Amino acid sequence: MKIKLFLLISFFFTVNSSTDEAVFWGQTGHRATGKIAESYLTRKAKRKIDKILKGQSLAFVSTYGDEIKSDKKYNEFYSWHYVNMKLDEKYADAEKNPKGDLVTGIQKCIEVLKNKNSSEEDRVFYLKMLIHFVGDLHQPMHIGQKEDKGGNTIQVQWFGRGTNLHSVWDTKMIEEWNMSYLELADNAEKLSKKQIEAIEKGTVVDWIDEVHELTNKLYSSVKVGENLKYRYSYEHFGTVRTQLQRGGIRLAKILNDIFD
């Protein structure tokens, strides 16, 4: 009986690890993006944000959008974490989710925060959600295909353990690198003013289309069932770092536009 129970538990965790992975940047990734954004905020924006968040940092609240997923009263916001697009599509041409997506979610957050008549409660909520969504936007598998749930059903292995392509990009590579969010943020690439301006340029839709081009490449970077190891991390972790940094810079750009 004990052997059967052990096998049953082992089977459960094996299945769970490969089919029920989280669908977002992991906590470390979101916090790194939030921390990077803080260094690009204007003084005026910092003061206003600090007042709304009552001293909590962008890094601290960056995971809020995922923390509330377990509460059914927030179900209406679930689809705001991603965009489903065919690999050869631009956002403008893609079929839109009637429940909304990352673009409509970010636009709603900005609208509430710019509205002087918004309640304090709404300003806190939508600021936290905005910080989270901009991070999500820069995780390439969030701009994935509907049929595989942004890589969640593309089964692979990570150092011999069952997982999926989405989770590899959410958390696995970041965890394998074994750096805190502060270390990731502090070691972000040093960029020139022109490079920063180039990253800031464009709209949310432009950024979606840009990230989707990367997503397209990632779908062909693995084979179903492939055991991904050091080589995959070596080839792609630089992209993870770039996306975290771009997310932070663009988050700061949006927040400065709202609060400066």
TrEMBL record:
What high-level taxonomic lineage is stated for the organism? Answer: Bacteria, Pseudomonadati, Bacteroidota, Flavobacteriia, Flavobacteriales
Q: What is this protein called?
A: S1/P1 nuclease
Using the record for this protein, list the coiled-coil segments as residue ranges, or answer none: none
- The domain of life is Bacteria
* A GO term for molecular function: metal ion binding
Matching entries from Pfam families are given as:
S1-P1_nuclease (PF02265)
**Could you tell me the keywords of this UniProt record?**
Disulfide bond, Endonuclease, Glycoprotein, Hydrolase, Metal-binding, Nuclease
Any single GO BP term? DNA catabolic process
- The species this protein belongs to is Polaribacter marinus
